[in-house]
Design a protein that fits this description.
The protein is of the alpha/beta class and 220 residues long. The chain is built from 7 helices and 9 strands, in the order βαβββαβαββααβαβα. It has a single domain, classed as NAD(P)-binding Rossmann-like Domain (Rossmann fold), CATH 3.40.50.720.
């Protein structure tokens, strides 16, 4: 039986991954890292409410014998200042990655990244630059046990209040985006399902663009 960690379980994609983990017979324990209690009970679930996503010193015992980490903590561009965006996008995942890697070096780490992440670290776009930086750092730490998932527009299967005008517009244009092909959009359910299978199956490919994830779902 496998043990997995889902960071950001209360988010749009994290909730879907959590559900897949709880319902899969191959998984015996799910450690859920959240800011606020989800009021969810399940025999497999070990929910840990965190006030600080940078300090895991008191959680070391929890990170032993982990098979996979699904990292879905993030923030929308424009929602916070530049310093906070970099901390959430780079420092938060790296803090967890270091903590888990020390206790469970054979585990896999699956990151919810984003389309356009720039591993050359030259982009003038904050999102692309920081996502590229954290991908590079995770590759250096985890090697081919690290998987980057880069969705384009994520269509929420459960209707929500959109975070900004850009997402409101994208939602209205989703039928058009979908017609353009598999490179531009993915549903939240498809993304969560793809990340879930990638973490458990450990495919040879480690970088999954939007169309890669959709194609992967056709063969798993």
């Amino acid at each position: 039986m496998k043990k997995v960690i889902v960071a950001g379980s209360s988010g749009m994609v994290g909730q879907i991954i959590l559900s897949h983990c709880l319902n899969d017979d191959r998984i015996g324990e799910v450690v859920s890292l959240v800011r606020q209690p989800m009021n969810l009970t399940h025999p497999k679930l070990n929910e840990i409410v965190l006030s600080d996503f940078l300090d895991y010193s008191s959680k070391r015992d929890v990170f032993t014998k982990v098979d996979a980490v699904y990292y879905c903590v993030g923030v929308y561009t424009g929602a916070v200042d530049r310093v906070s965006f970099r901390q959430i996008t780079i420092d938060f995942p790296m803090a967890l990655a270091h903590a888990v890697q020390k206790a469970s070096p054979k585990s896999t780490f699956v990151l919810l990244s984003g389309q356009g992440a720039d591993r050359k670290e030259k982009s003038r776009l904050m999102f692309a630059l920081d996502k590229g930086i954290v991908e590079n750092k995770l590759v250096a730490l985890w090697g081919n046990q690290f998987y980057a998932c880069r969705p384009g527009y994520i269509y929420p299967v459960v209707k929500r209040k959109e975070p900004n005008f850009s997402y409101t517009l994208s939602r209205s244009l989703y039928p058009v985006l979908k017609l353009l092909g598999k490179k531009f959009s993915i549903t939240s359910e498809e993304l969560g399902q793809a990340m879930f299978h990638i973490g458990l199956n450990q495919p040879e490919k480690t970088l999954f663009e939007n169309d890669d994830m959709l194609h992967y779902l056709e063969v798993v």
